[in-house]
Amino acid sequence: MASFKRLPLNSTIRWLCSRYTTSVTVITRVERGSLACSGHIAQCRFVHSSGTGASQASPNATPQRLPFSRISPEDLTFFRQLLPGRAITDPDMLESCNVDWLKSVRGNSEVLLRPKTTDEVSQILRYCNERNLAVNPQGGNTGLVGGSVPVFDEIVLSTALMNQVLTFDSVSGILTCQAGCVLETLSQYLEERDFIMPLDLGAKGSCHIGGNVSTNAGGLRLLRYGSLRGTVLGLEAVLADGKVLNCLSTLRKDNTGYDLKQLFIGSEGTLGIITAVSILCPRKPKAVNVAFLGCSSFEALLETFRCCRGRLGEILSAFEFLDAACMNLLVKHLKLSNPITESPFYIVIETAGSDAAHDEEKLHNFLEEVMTSSLVTDGTVATEEAKIKALWSLRERITEALTHDGYTYKYDISLPVEKIYQLVTDMREHLGDRAKNVVGYGHVGDGNLHLNITSPSKDPSLLAAIEPYVYEWTSSCQGSISAEHGLGLKKRNYIYYSKSSEAVGLMGDIKAMLDPKGILNPYKTLPDDLHS
Ligand SMILES: O=C(O)CC[C@@H](O)C(=O)O
Ligand SMILES: [Zn+2]
Question: Subcellular location, in the record's words (predicted)?
Answer without folding.
Answer: Mitochondrion
